[in-house]
Amino acid sequence: MTVVHLIHGYLGVGKTTFAKQLEADTGAVRLSADEWYLRLYTDGGPAEALDDPLAARLNGQLEELWTTLVRRGVEVILDFGLWRRADRDRARDLAAAVGAAVRLYRLHCTEAVARERVRRRNADPGESWYLSDAAFDHLKAKYEPLGADETATDIDTTDTAPTPPPAAAPPARYPKGRRRPLTTLDISDPELDARFAAGYDGQNQWRVDDEFFLALAKLEAGRVVDVGCGTGRLTIMLANAGLDVTGVDPNPAFLNIAYAKPGTDRVAWIRGTAADLPDQAFDTALMTSHVAQVFLTNADWADVLSDLKRCLRPGGLLAFDTRDPADKAWERWASDHGYVGEERVVLPDGLVRDTTTTFVSYTDGVAMFETSAVLSDGTAHHRPEDQDLSPGTLWSRARWAYRFRRPELVKRSLEHAGFQVENMFGGWQQEPLGHGVGEIVVLARA
Q1: What span, in angstroms and rounded, lies between the C-alpha atoms of 178 and 276?
Q2: Which span out of 74-83, 126-135, 295-304 was modeled with the highest average pLDDT?
Q3: Which numeric CATH code is attached to 178-446?
Q4: Which of 29, 143, 180, 283 sits at 20 to 30 Å (Cα–Cα) from 262?
Q5: Is the CB of residue 283 less than 8 Å from the CB of residue 224?
Q6: How many CB atoms lie within 10 A of CB 278?
Q7: pLDDT tens column, 135-159
Q8: CA separation for the pair 223, 319 (Å, rounded)
Q9: In what order do the strands lie in the sheet with 244-249?
């Protein structure tokens, strides 16, 4: 009798790894709902939540596919998670209807192991969801363990967890007793972030893209909101041009820099995100400097577009920039073994910040970077981890990422949020897409 193999288990228990091994052992056809969804609907990028209508449509197609295979005598492995009892019952009923036997496997491991696997997978998600710790906890409410009447093969995968790599030994140039240990900083901590945020304006001078958005906002007039305003470089220039401007950013260190600039009193500042903006309060919303690319998941991107649509009056303008994946900027960033650049900035208090940025990877639409920074007295040009650091030197490392979306996906997401796309340019001189400077410059109406 043909067999339908059902894989059940929570996040990080190794369902797909087990399913692939079962595929190799039995010759059955493996179907993974996650892999199909990510390939078809997300441009290959990570996501913490899926679109329910699309998922339902996909599940219907997969049901039709696997039942057809079983009717023709082909065994199948359903790597669907099968969290809900109703989903497991449906799979059993469909298998019975086509004359197949069912084997149900319950995979489990300790929560600590599952969380660590998910975190490791997030660094290179591939055809898997990107899941934060918060999402790991939140999704437990949707998970229904097997009932006492559900017969299953029990598989504990705890001991098959990947072995963490050994910690690197400290470099010989830091002999014990001669140097203090380096202090690793979490640069999301507002009190410490200011030391690294202080050089932002030195790294990001006024550019042609700022001129474009300034001219655009002046043409539209009315009330303007600068979403992800950072240190207020563009925001204050908009106010100086006589516009009624609000700047919003979640980073208090950046906002503190903005508060100290001349002309800051002409701007209404909000520490927060687009979700904190009032309804139909603005005529123009700007999201510049590739802020659109920091929203890695489809769910987060959809949320911010929904908030921007809500905060704009009917007919209001949304304008933003995002890099065009057709330009393949990551290939340039990946040259020279991933090296992107070094920069030295003298901070207002006289300390020197040496920053080294490297390109880590480009996987399924997401470019990953690592930035290391040293604060010192400037007596040497420090490259983090490569040079001897004086006592008390502060060192920080952070990983960050950009999401690339194709123009048609950008357009589709805007239309789904209720916007009408007015123009999409390839550069700041309104060049056609693909003929500019590797940008997608978007103008859309609420």
Answers
A1: 50
A2: 74-83
A3: 3.40.50.150
A4: 283
A5: yes
A6: 11
A7: 788 888 889 999 999 999 999 998 7
A8: 14
A9: 267-271, 244-249, 223-227, 282-287, 312-323, 439-445, 420-425
pLDDT at 166 > cutoff 60: no
User: 418: phi > 0 → left, psi -120 to 50 → alpha, else beta; which?
Assistant: left
In DSSP notation, 252-301 reads HHHHHHHHTSTTGGGEEEEES-GGGSPTT-EEEEEE-TTGGGG--SHHHH
Write down how long the chain is: 446
Which CATH number fits the domain 3-160, given the four candidates 3.30.360.10, 3.40.630.30, 3.40.50.300, 3.90.940.10? Answer: 3.40.50.300
Measured over the CA atoms of residue 164, residue 367, residue 197 and residue 264, the dihedral's sign is negative
The residues spanned by each domain of the chain are 3-160, 178-446
pLDDT: which is higher, 110 or 253: 110
Mean pLDDT is lowest, of 152-156, 192-196, 400-404, for 192-196
Distance of alpha carbon 362 from alpha carbon 316, whole angstroms: 35
pLDDT surpasses 60 at 109: yes
Convert the pLDDT of each residue in 295-313 to its tens digit: 988 888 999 999 999 999 9
b/e 163-196 (16+ beta carbons within 10 angstroms → b): eeeeeeeeeeeeeeeebeebeebebeeeebbbbb
